[in-house]
Automatic annotation (TrEMBL), chain A:
GO terms for molecular function: acyltransferase activity. Coiled coil: none annotated. Residues 1-27 form the signal peptide. The lineage of its organism: Bacteria, Pseudomonadati, Pseudomonadota, Betaproteobacteria, Nitrosomonadales. This is Acyltransferase. CDD domains: LolA (cd16325). It comes from Thiobacillus denitrificans. Pfam families: LolA_3 (PF19574). Keywords: Acyltransferase, Signal, Transferase.
TrEMBL record, chain B:
SUPFAM superfamilies: Multidrug efflux transporter AcrB transmembrane domain. The keyword Membrane applies. This is Membrane protein. One of its GO terms (cellular component) is plasma membrane. Keywords: Cell membrane, Membrane, Transmembrane, Transmembrane helix.
C-alpha cells in the first residue's frame, strides 16, 4: 500500500454508515485491502442499531437499541436509548460509560477482552487493517455487493473470552456484527445507516 | 605610649580568641535552605497544620516526572523501565505510571471485603425490594457495553458492590494511557508520579531521590539522547532552590569581595592596607554567622546571602579609619578621639534599627537582624580597638586629598540643588501616596526562590497529571483512630451533599478505605442471615429474567461476610489503598488526625463559606485553605515587619534625641534618611516592583548606613567645614556598599534581589541628600 493511501485510510471513514458513494457494483471477488480502502473513505457517519444478547445466566435474551456515531479515526459513540439510556464513548484508549447519574471511565488497556471486542468494530469502521490484524486473523468471503468478514482472536487469552466475530456488509456498509463468546453467550447487532449530519 | 601598646596587645589576643571561638561555633553549624526560615515561631492550629503539610504531608512527598522528546513508544518504554527499576528502590513509597501493578491485589482486596467497604450496604438494600432494585440494575449493566466486565462476578455479587467500590476508587481523573504508560493530554510527554518515603522537608533525601530517578533514566536500556527527563514537586523545588541559593551566595561573595578589593586597591594603592581593611569585615562575618548559629540553632542560606552584601557595609569602618586619619601613627589615636564617637553613634543607630527585627515572629527576619547587629558590632569594635594596633609603623595609604578637595567644592555647591531636590522629594511622596494600595506584595509566593520557569513546568505537569495540589483540606482530630474515622465518616456525609450540589468535584477520606469499626459492624449487621436472605432473594427475582439458584455463591459470600474479621489498617498493606490511608490518617503523639482533601470543580475555587457552613454541625472540624492560610501567614509577617521597622525608626530617633538633646539637630540627621527611603520606595513603585519583606529590610539598612553619612555632615558648629578627607572616606564607603548590595540586584533569588535594588540606590541617595541638606559652612 502506498504511503498516500495509508494516510487516507487512517482518515477515512466507516463507509457502511455513509451515503452511497456512487461506485458501481463489483462482481469480482473482493480482497481485504479493497474492502478496507472503501470502508476508510468517509470521515464520519451515523446509524441506528438494535442488539440482542443471549446470556446463559439469564432466562431471556436482552434487547437494546439506539444510535451509533463514528468519527474517524478513533471515536466511537454508542448511545443506547432502550431499555435504559446509556452512553458509551470510546475515544482513543479511553472508554467512558454513562448510565443515569453514574459515569465509569475505563482504560481499554486494563481490560484486554473488552478492548478486543470494541476494537473490532472501531477498526472495521475505520478501515484500519493494521489495527484489526494486531488482534485477529481475518477471513473474507463474498463480493463487494455482499461480504462476510470473520475475525478470530490471535491471542489465546482473548480467545478464552471471544470465540469469533462475524461481520456482514453490503458494499461499503457494515450491516451486522455478531459476537460469539467462548462460554456460548452471543450478541447480534444489526445496523441501519442513517444520512450523516451535514 | 607603652600603656597604649599593652592595651593594643591585649585587644589583639582577645580578638584572636574571639575569632577562634566563632570558627569553632561555625564549624558545628547546620546550614539550611528549606522553608524553616519562613515558618512562624508560634503557630496557630491552622499554621501548625500548614507547616506539617509543607514539611511532611502527602503533597510534600510527591515528585512529578515527565519524559519529553523522542517518540511516544520510546517515551512509554522509558517510563516502564524507570518505573520497574524504582519500584525496587526503598527510596520510593510508590512509583506510578499507569501500569496496573497493584491492580490484581487491589481487586482481590476490594472484592473480598466488599460488604465491609461499600457504602451502599444498608439493611434496606438487602430487603426484598432493595434486592430487586439492585438486581435489575446489575442486569442492565450486564446488557450494556461493560457487561463483559460484570458477567463473571454476577453470581457472587448480584447487588453490584464491587462496581460501587471501583467507581469510588477511580473517581479521580487519571492521565490517558499511551502505549501502556501515562501521557500528557497533548501526547507529547510521558508522565510518572512518585512518592518518596522521606519527608519533603528532608532536602538531602529528596536530592537522593532525584538522583535515583535521573540515574534510572540515564541507564534505561531505551535511553536515547533525544529524550529528556524533567522533574518537579515540592521536594524538587527545595533541592533546586538550595542549589540556587548556594551557587548565588558563593558567586556573589566572590564577586563582591573582588569588586570591593579592587576599589580599595585603587584608593589605597597598598596591599597591606587592603588586607588590614578586610580584617573587620571577616571578623564581622564570622561573628554574624556564629551569633545566628547560637541564637537559632541553624543558619539559613538567605542569611548568608545577606551577609555577603553586608561586607560592603562593614568595610566602611576601616575606610573611615584609614582615609580620615592623618598620615602618621599618632593620628590614628587622634582619629579615635575625633571620629570614633560619630562612628560609634552610627553603629548604635544601626543596632537600634535592626534590634526591632529580633522581635519578628518570622525567623528569617530575626536571623537577618541578629546577623546585622553582631556583624556590625564586631566590625566596628575590631576597627576601633584592634586595627590601630596592627598598623605598621610607617603605614600609609595613597594620598586622596585631591579627591577630597574636589568633593569639598562639589559639596559647597550642593546647596544650590535644595529646590530641585525638594521637588523630587515631593514628587516621590506623591507617587508613594498615590500607589499606597499596591506598594506591598502580600502573597507568600513572592518570597519563593523558585524560578518562574520551574513554576510553569510544575503547573503544566500538574495539569497533565491531575495531581492533587492539596490546597483545600478538611481536618478531623480525635483521641484515637476509631473516633477520628467516625468523625471522618460524618464529615464525608456532609461533604457528599456538597458534591451532589456541585460545590465540590470530589473529596478523599481515609474512612473510604478503612471504615471505622462501628461502620464496618453496622454493614455486617445489614446482611440478613442466610435463610432470611434466601427467602427475600426468591421474592426479589420475581419479574426478572434470572433464577434465584444462580445466586448460591452470593448466599455463601454474605454468610461468610457476616462473621468475617473486621478490617484493620494492616490488612491494607501491599495495596494502593495503604498509601492513601498512610497519607490521610496521621498519628501525632497522643492525637489522631484524618485529612480529607477536597477537589475544586474544574476552573473554580472552592467557596470556603459554603464548606464551613456545611460542616458547622461538627465544631471540631477544621477547614483549611492552604494557599489562603500561607498568604495570611506572610501578610501577617509583612504587617508585623512594617510595625517593627517603624519601631526601629522610633528607636533611632529616641537614641539621637538622648545623645544630642536637640530636636532640630535630630531632624537634620533624620531628614536625608527619610528622603532617601521615600525616594527609593517611589522608584520601586514607578518600576512596578511591589515590595516584599526584604525591601523593608533594605530600607532599614539604608537608614542604618545613611545615618553614618548624616552624622558626618552634622556639625554643631556650622563654621567648621567638613574635612576633605572625611568627604572622600564617605564616598569610598558608599561605593563599597553599593558594590556589595548592587550585585544582589542581579540575583534571580527574589529575596536577595529585593535587598539589592533597595540598598544600592538608597545609600547613594542618602549620601546625596545629606550633602544637599547639610548646614552650609559660612566660610
Amino acid at each position: 500500500m502506498s504511503k498516500l493511501v495509508r494516510q487516507r485510510s487512517r482518515w477515512g471513514w466507516f463507509a457502511g454508515l455513509a451515503l452511497l458513494c456512487g461506485q458501481s457494483a463489483h462482481a469480482a471477488p473482493l480482497s481485504i485491502s479493497q474492502l478496507m480502502d472503501s470502508l476508510a473513505k468517509q470521515p464520519q457517519g451515523a446509524a441506528t442499531f438494535t442488539e440482542k444478547k443471549h446470556i446463559s445466566i439469564l432466562d431471556q435474551p436482552l434487547e437494546s437499541s439506539g444510535e451509533l456515531l463514528f468519527i474517524a479515526p478513533a471515536r466511537l459513540e454508542k448511545r443506547t436509548l432502550k431499555p435504559r439510556p446509556e452512553t458509551m464513548v470510546l475515544d482513543g484508549g479511553t472508554l467512558t460509560l454513562e448510565r443515569g447519574k453514574r459515569k465509569h471511565v475505563l482504560q481499554l488497556k486494563d481490560y484486554p477482552e473488552v478492548a478486543a471486542m470494541i476494537e473490532s468494530i472501531r477498526a472495521t469502521l475505520a478501515g484500519d487493517r493494521q489495527a484489526l490484524e494486531r488482534v485477529y486473523h481475518l477471513a473474507l468471503e463474498g463480493g463487494f455487493e455482499r461480504w462476510t468478514l470473520v475475525l478470530t482472536p490471535i491471542d489465546p487469552k482473548v480467545g478464552a473470552v471471544i470465540a469469533r466475530i462475524r461481520m456482514e456488509g453490503v458494499k461499503d456498509g457494515v450491516r451486522s456484527v455478531e459476537i460469539l463468546q467462548a462460554d456460548g453467550d452471543s450478541s447480534l447487532m444489526t445496523i441501519e445507516k442513517r444520512a450523516p449530519p451535514q | 605610649m607603652i600603656h597604649t601598646r599593652r592595651r593594643g596587645i591585649a585587644a589583639i589576643v582577645l580578638w584572636l580568641i574571639f575569632l577562634l571561638a566563632c570558627a569553632g561555633i561555625i564549624s558545628r553549624t547546620h546550614f539550611t535552605t528549606d522553608l524553616s526560615a519562613f515558618l512562624p515561631r508560634a503557630p496557630t492550629p491552622e499554621q501548625q497544620l500548614l507547616m506539617d503539610q509543607l514539611q511532611d504531608g502527602l503533597a510534600s512527598r510527591l515528585i512529578l516526572v515527565g519524559i519529553e522528546g523522542a517518540d511516544a513508544p520510546t517515551r512509554a518504554r522509558l517510563s516502564k523501565q524507570i518505573a520497574q527499576r524504582l519500584r525496587a528502590d526503598r527510596t520510593f513509597a510508590s512509583v506510578n505510571n499507569g501500569e496496573p501493578v497493584n491492580a490484581e491485589r487491589d481487586r482481590t482486596f476490594l472484592f473480598d471485603n466488599r460488604y465491609l467497604l461499600s457504602p451502599a450496604v444498608t439493611p434496606a438494600r438487602f430487603s426484598a425490594d432493595g434486592l430487586h432494585a439492585a438486581l435489575s440494575d446489575s442486569i442492565d449493566l450486564l446488557a450494556s457495553s461493560a457487561g463483559l466486565l460484570v458477567k463473571s462476578i454476577l453470581p457472587r455479587d448480584p447487588t453490584g458492590e464491587m462496581v460501587q467500590l471501583l467507581e469510588q476508587l477511580n473517581s479521580g481523573t487519571q492521565p490517558t494511557l499511551v502505549e501502556g504508560a501515562w501521557a500528557s493530554r497533548d501526547g507529547t510527554r510521558a508522565l510518572m508520579l512518585m512518592q518518596t518515603r522521606a519527608a519533603g522537608s528532608d532536602t538531602d533525601a529528596q536530592q537522593h531521590a532525584m538522583a535515583a530517578i535521573q540515574q534510572a533514566f540515564d541507564q534505561a536500556p531505551s535511553a536515547i539522547p533525544s529524550a529528556q527527563l524533567v522533574m518537579t514537586g515540592p521536594g524538587v523545588f527545595s533541592v533546586t532552590s538550595r542549589d540556587t541559593i548556594k551557587r548565588q551566595v558563593t558567586r556573589l561573595s566572590i564577586i563582591s569581595l573582588a569588586l570591593i578589593a579592587t576599589l580599595l586597591l585603587l584608593v589605597y594603592r597598598s596591599f597591606s592596607a587592603l588586607t588590614l581593611g578586610l580584617l573587620p569585615v571577616v571578623s564581622g562575618a564570622l561573628a554574624g554567622i556564629a551569633a545566628v548559629s547560637l541564637g537559632f540553632g541553624a543558619v539559613h542560606g538567605i542569611t548568608l546571602g545577606f551577609g555577603t552584601a553586608l561586607i560592603g557595609e562593614a568595610v566602611d569602618y576601616s575606610i573611615y579609619l584609614f582615609v580620615q586619619s592623618e598620615q602618621n601613627n599618632a593620628d590614628h589615636q587622634n582619629w579615635i578621639k575625633r571620629f570614633w564617637p560619630t562612628i560609634r553613634l552610627g553603629v548604635l543607630t544601626s543596632i537600634a534599627g535592626f534590634a526591632s527585627l529580633l522581635l519578628s515572629g518570622f525567623p528569617g527576619l530575626a536571623q537577618l537582624g541578629l546577623y546585622a547587629i553582631a556583624g556590625l558590632i564586631a566590625a566596628a569594635t575590631v576597627t576601633r580597638f584592634v586595627l590601630p594596633s596592627l598598623l605598621p609603623a610607617h603605614f600609609r595609604i595613597h594620598d586622596v586629598s585631591a579627591i577630597g578637595l574636589t568633593l569639598s567644592r562639589v559639596v559647597q555647591r550642593a546647596a544650590a540643588l535644595r529646590w530641585p531636590a525638594a521637588i523630587v522629594l515631593l514628587a516621590a511622596c506623591a507617587i508613594v501616596v498615590a500607589n499606597r494600595a499596591s506598594l506591598w506584595n502580600d502573597t507568600i509566593a513572592s518570597l519563593s526562590p523558585v524560578s518562574q520557569v520551574d513554576v510553569e513546568l510544575d503547573t503544566r505537569l500538574r495539569a497533565d497529571m491531575g495531581a492533587p495540589d492539596v490546597r483545600y483540606l478538611v481536618v478531623v482530630s480525635g483521641a484515637n483512630q476509631e473516633s477520628v474515622l467516625r468523625a471522618a465518616e460524618r464529615a464525608s456525609t456532609l461533604l457528599q451533599t456538597l458534591v451532589e450540589q456541585g460545590e465540590l468535584a470530589g473529596f478523599e477520606s481515609p474512612s473510604r478505605y478503612l471504615p471505622s469499626i462501628a461502620t464496618q459492624r453496622a454493614r455486617q449487621n445489614s446482611l440478613p442471615p442466610r435463610p432470611l436472605l434466601e427467602t427475600r432473594l426468591a421474592q426479589a427475582v420475581q419479574g426478572l429474567p434470572v433464577r434465584a439458584q444462580l445466586f448460591t455463591p452470593f448466599l455463601a459470600d454474605t454468610t461468610a461476610a457476616r462473621s468475617q474479621p473486621l478490617l484493620q489498617a494492616a490488612d491494607l498493606q501491599q495495596t494502593s489503598m495503604a498509601m492513601a490511608v498512610d497519607a490521610l490518617l496521621i498519628r501525632q503523639q497522643r492525637q489522631w488526625r484524618a485529612l480529607l482533601p477536597l477537589t475544586a470543580p474544574e476552573g473554580v475555587d472552592i467557596n470556603a463559606e459554603r464548606v464551613r457552613a456545611a460542616l458547622s454541625a461538627m465544631p471540631d472540624v477544621l477547614f483549611v485553605d492552604m494557599k489562603a492560610e500561607s498568604d495570611r501567614l506572610y501578610s501577617g509577617y509583612l504587617h508585623e515587619a512594617i510595625a517593627l521597622s517603624l519601631g526601629g525608626l522610633v528607636a533611632i530617633i529616641v537614641l539621637l534625641l538622648v545623645v544630642f538633646r536637640s530636636p532640630m539637630r535630630v531632624l537634620r540627621i533624620i531628614a536625608p534618611l527619610a528622603a532617601a527611603i521615600i525616594t527609593v520606595t517611589a522608584g520601586l513603585s514607578l518600576f512596578g516592583q511591589q515590595m516584599i519583606i526584604l525591601h523593608l529590610v533594605g530600607l532599614l539598612l539604608v537608614a542604618a548606613v545613611g545615618s553614618n553619612y548624616a552624622l558626618f555632615f552634622d556639625r554643631p558648629d556650622p563654621r567648621t567645614p567638613i574635612l576633605p578627607r572625611t568627604l572622600a572616606s564617605m564616598l569610598f564607603a558608599s561605593l563599597t556598599t553599593v558594590a556589595g548590595f548592587g550585585l544582589l540586584a542581579f540575583s534571580n533569588v527574589s529575596i536577595l534581589q529585593a535587598l539589592g535594588v533597595t540598598v544600592a540606590p538608597g545609600v547613594i541617595l542618602a549620601l546625596i541628600y545629606s550633602a544637599i541638606f547639610a548646614r552650609q559652612s559660612d566660610a
